[in-house]
Amino acid sequence: MTKLLLKAESLTEFLHKLGCSIYINNNIKLYTNIKNVDLNLYKKSDRFSSKAKYRYEEILIDTNENKRINYVFGFFCENTVEINGEFNLKNINDTVRILGENLKESKLVRQNKLWI
Fold first, then answer.
1. Whole-angstrom Cα distance, residue 106 to residue 103?
2. Given strand 28-29, what is the order of strands in its sheet?
3. I need a surface site. Which of 12, 35, 83, 84 has the fewest CB within 10 A?
4. pTM greater than 0.85
């Protein structure tokens, strides 16, 4: 089972500033305000042990102090992922293929603690 994990304030903010558009299940846009997400579509659950603020059967979501989504965890086989208009992503390799150099650059930013 391939996991979807998008985390780190610097990564989500970095991708947002680059204009990357990342949606989970067609209604969760990374780095948008949690108030804009219809959470009634999800069943509350403690399936995953986590400190994430929003825990559901299908997905975990967390936000920063500004209520912007900065963490999403789930399985690709249980959720749909869209990055920059590309659908039907099945695994982390698809994500890396699309984000490519942007993903590598964001890792470098985090490793060097260069906050964008």
1. 5
2. 28-29, 22-24, 81-83
3. 35
4. no
